[in-house]
């Protein structure tokens, strides 16, 4: 009954929409005016519980018809919360602007990679001479300074070899002095020979004159033949004396040449023995193995009492001079140049940021310098982005943490 009256009253109170006008705004206007068009005191009556089923069905249908009308009566969410939508839009816009500036300032001018690690020229500590280890004052992972002793080999055998070499040099020096004395004696003999030659030549001249005089007297009959023959014999003796003196002089001179050659040979022997002394000193020095630069001792294998052979590895040595090798994609090094700043984050110490610089960019990919480089001349070819090693140096590494080769690093290079 009440539903029939309501359905009859609604057409009279709702004006018809005009042609061409949107229906949704009219509905909103009608929804706002519908509450005032209902008479005062007119309220909806609930159906009586004792109504029959025929009356309950139309009541349910009328409730379904009123649900869309109630929805049309409520204003949309944009009209109910305009400031919320405005603030939300501004927040989204600010977020987009912030993301853009973050990309522009923190991502766009940087090139980063996780294919990087700490690198160093690890050295194998090997003795140059063999012997028993008598002292090992270091231990694993210990930091040492330049000149600090790492291993000590027994020095007794090498000291004896050094003394023998020095004694041989002393013997060579004595031999040279003896030769020098002989040379001086030969010079004296030469002087004596020269004096003998002068005396013999003077006697020869007198004998020649005496023999000529006696010969002339014998021919004229004033002298005897015996005197002539005696003078001739004396002349021949004087000639032999001159020849003997000349031969002695030549022999003395040749002896000096021989002694000088012997002296040169002894000097060469002494030089060789002096080299043996230097070698013995070096071998003695090689028994003390020292650190050539600051670094850390790792993988220590030599111990006291062990026999170390020449060339045997006793430990590994990692110098303090380490750097970072970053394998960047070839598309990332377009603007990368030496001297550009780099921020390094080591995986072992993620809370620390270490500052470095680009030292150099390898002129070629890592595979190009491998033991077996790729050969793409035959077969199918698949293009793969290559990796270019970039050397990054750090001026001041942190001293309170251990940083060694092989540790993973994430470098970020400022390229713009």
From TrEMBL:
Asked whether the UniProt record includes Metal-binding among its keywords, one would answer no
- Low complexity bias locations: 220-238
Q: Which residues cross the membrane?
A: 83-105
Domain of life of the organism encoding this protein: Bacteria
Ranges where the CusB-like beta-barrel domain occurs? 322-364
- Renumbered to this chain, the Basic and acidic residues biased-composition regions fall at 20-49
| Multidrug resistance protein MdtA-like barrel-sandwich hybrid domain residues | 122-318
**Record's keyword terms, sorted:** Coiled coil, Membrane, Transmembrane, Transmembrane helix
Q: Transmembrane helix among the record's keywords? A: yes
Q: Which residues form a coiled coil?
A: 162-217, 242-283
- What name appears for this protein in its UniProt entry? Membrane fusion protein, multidrug efflux system
Species source reads Methylobacterium pseudosasicola
